[in-house]
Design a protein that fits this description.
2 domains; 8 helices; globular; Helicase, Ruva Protein, domain 3; Rossmann fold; alpha/beta
């Protein structure tokens, strides 16, 4: 498992970072042992260093938005292929997590990397009720008790309801919204944190 990446193929609005962080915390991969980076122009060298360092020291490394740097992902494919070389030692605790959007037109994700990976497809829940359940299941008691203001919990519920509506209306495309709104799990977590600070 340490030589096979785990690829999240994301649907709009999905962000598995918090879920992977929670799993990492349960297994002791916190702080410097869990490294993540959102890929974009000029991030190739930093991402490559994190992967190589993680393979040596047994860190978890998460590369987000891999669809934005497909040229780097082609290089990463050869790096991952080297992990299976018997002469190369890869730490047994090392895990490589990748996130990418659903494949579309243009340059495609490298086939060799896809074949040697565990693939997880994320799909948003269908319907307002399931969206609400999904959101509220990720808000634990510790987060709810973080603010003592009497309006905090009702506002968290209202924010969750708003998030569920935004997520559910995406399936209607242009009938639901004139343009796409990227209000994902990270956004709701940040909104809750900001609300806590202001209250």
């Amino acid at each position: 498992m340490n030589i096979n990446p785990i690829i999240f193929i994301l649907s709009p609005g999905a962000d598995p970072l918090d879920d992977v962080k929670r799993v990492g915390e349960k297994h002791g991969f916190v702080g410097n042992k869990f490294r993540f980076i959102s890929l974009g122009d000029g991030m190739e060298q930093e991402a490559e260093e994190k992967v190589k360092l993680g393979a040596q020291r047994g860190h978890w490394v998460m590369l987000q938005n891999c669809h934005l740097l497909l040229n780097f992902i082609l290089e990463l494919e050869s790096t991952v292929a080297e992990f299976s070389d018997p002469d190369r030692v890869v730490h047994e605790d090392f895990r490589l997590w990748l996130t990418t959007n659903t494949p579309g037109s243009g340059q495609e994700f490298p086939l060799g990397l896809l074949q040697n990976s565990l693939k997880i497809v994320t799909e948003p829940p269908d319907g307002l009720k399931l969206n609400m359940k999904s959101i509220l299941s990720k808000i634990d008691d510790e987060k709810l008790e973080a603010c003592s203001h009497h309006a905090f919990k009702p506002l968290v519920y209202v924010l969750s309801f708003f998030h569920a509506i935004v997520q559910d209306r995406r399936k209607y495309a242009k009938i639901g919204w004139n343009c796409k709104y990227a209000f994902n799990e990270s956004d709701i977590n940040i909104s809750i944190n900001i609300m806590q600070i202001y209250l």
